[in-house]
Write a structure and sequence with these properties.
Elements lengths: L6 H22 L1 H9 L21 H6 L1 H4 L7 E6 L9 E5 H17 L7 E4 L8 H13 L2 E4 L5 H11 L3 E4 L1 H13 L11 E4 L13 H9 L3 E8 L4 E4 L7 E2 L5 E6 L12 E7 L10 E7 L1 E2 L11 E2 L4 E2 L4 E3 L2 E3 L1 H8 L7 E8 L5 E9 L6 H13 L4 E6 H8 L10 E3 L2
Parallel strand pairs: 3-4, 3-5, 5-6, 6-7, 18-21, 19-20
Antiparallel strand pairs: 1-2, 7-8, 9-14, 10-11, 11-12, 12-15, 13-14, 16-17, 18-19
Helix pairs in contact: 1-2, 5-6, 7-8, 8-9, 10-11
Length: 425
Amino acid sequence: MIEYKTLVEQKKYQEAQLPAVLEYVKAHSKFYSDLFKKNNIDINKIKTIEDLQQIPVTTKDDIQNRNNDFICVAPHKIIDYITTSGTLGEPVLFPMTDKDLDRLAYNECISFQCADSTSDDIFQLMTTLDKRFMAGLAYFLGIRKLGAGVVRVGGGIPELQWDTIKRINPTAFVTVPSFLLKLIEYAEANNIDYKNTSITKAICIGEALRNQDFTLSTLGQRIQDKWNIKLYSTYASTEMSAAFTECKAGKGGHHHPELVIVEFLDEENNPVKEGEAGEVTITTIGVEGMPLVRFKTGDLCYHYKEECSCGRKTIRLGPIVGRRKQMIKYKGTTLYPPALYDILNNIEGVVNYVVEVYTNEIGTDEILIRIGCETIPEHFEKDIKDHFRAKLRVAPLIRFEDAEFISKVQYPELSRNPIVFFDKR
């Protein structure tokens, strides 16, 4: 496997694939054809990964504004229609050909292998396969290619999840990690011996399990303290149709170099050094329906190049620091939402929450945290603010609301994931 070859060998492989990627988008993507013409780019002169810097980056706004111009295939070649969740406006369409679905299955198969999974596993899939969502479909295809078993339970309904565990004896979950706390809570309330089940691990999506030093985050530690199963973190996006998945070392998500070229860029689109946070920027390899070149994901992270103890030599992504567009300048301090989440997840009595950022009357960022509680202990607001001051030196505005109402705010109509950050600036 290429993941066990040196970084130099991996780079040579990618550079051998690069001409075909650029020729394909020039011939079939109106957006990239226009981009190359406008910027007088001769793709025959782009031979190396470093040469990619001659090409302007692609942004989420570009895809939002010119969605159809990115599509490279005729309608009769499209097998599956996927959309993003539309956080920047209307959902963006990502058409998948038969070849794209095979690529997606391969990505998830090797990702599961990275997370110590085999054909002997049975996965309890707690993500949706409907609502035009890529993730659930990707996991299903990957598990099938791995040759493992899968139980398509979907999200929510703890009673059904526990009934499935009892009946089928799955070995692994694919889930949003915070839902594991809901499962534990239900088990404890219903005298279920959850510590002695067939489950040995959870492939976790959508929420941070680790801090920047790779220790478990507050959420990860709360799960581990209650239920000693192995937790694996993943980072993925619809745009790349690929994933960065942890191995047993838990030291970052492994890159799949045969599927994606990855760069880490600063605000001026220059490469950052190892040890500096950069925006994850990807060029897809082998995508037919809607390939992307130098797409800036908006996600900031650190990357690591030293060989992993698992034997893989690929670049690894650390936990996401934050999204560049979600950076908050608050009372002289630069913050990203994950820093707020980590504190809130560690405060007893906070059932759920949403974070709102808006521009106040003097034109600066203001943070309001709406906290769902069952009861509000005396001095609770002061205690919460003290936690923030101790960790971040500043304290946001706090408002207490009914936990059931906050849950509804987190899941607006047609939402496929909980939304806890609302940027109203």
